[in-house]
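Dear Dr. K.,

Following up on our conversation at the group meeting, I've run the structure prediction for HTH crp-type domain-containing protein from Streptomyces shenzhenensis. I'm pasting the input sequence below exactly as I used it, so you can double-check it against your construct before we proceed with anything downstream. Let me know if the numbering doesn't match what you have in your notebook.
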Amino acid sequence: MTEPYPDGTRAFLEIRGKGQLLGETSALSGALRNADVTAVCRTVVQAVGHGRFLAGLGCNDVLVMLLDAQHLHRTANVRVGVRRFGVVSGLSRLLLDLARTASTPFLAGIPQKVLAYALGVTPRTLYGAVAELERRGAISARWPVVHLTDEAVLKELARSEA
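The predicted structure tokens came back this morning:
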């Protein structure tokens, strides 16, 4: 998700996964918000009006659980893991999560700049981590496509302090 600015630039907001809500912040605050969403896999969207969404919070346990899960997702930001385990490990976890969401080992259309921002690193630091994953045979990157070539290596790196 990105937020468009009047000058034409975009600010990265976050990456959302399967079953996550879009627009809940606007519905809860009552303020109009604008964000652009780019799907990296087949996506089904169900639009729910503001009033219906708020009414559903009072009587729909599933909606409340989704909202709680959304909050947990936001607070368990990928950047925390990057600070603790390192960029290679954080990038490995992020790529595995995106591949699970897309249900494919090919990730296309995610700019390097967005991945760097999601990890809280510079594009140069991201480039180094991508090069390390390629050297270990975990991925093949030909931007804008990243192919996960060895999921076992990625999983190992995701758990390591590399």
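Two things stood out to me. The radius of gyration is 17 Å. The first strand starts at residue 2 and ends at 4.

Best regards,
J.T.
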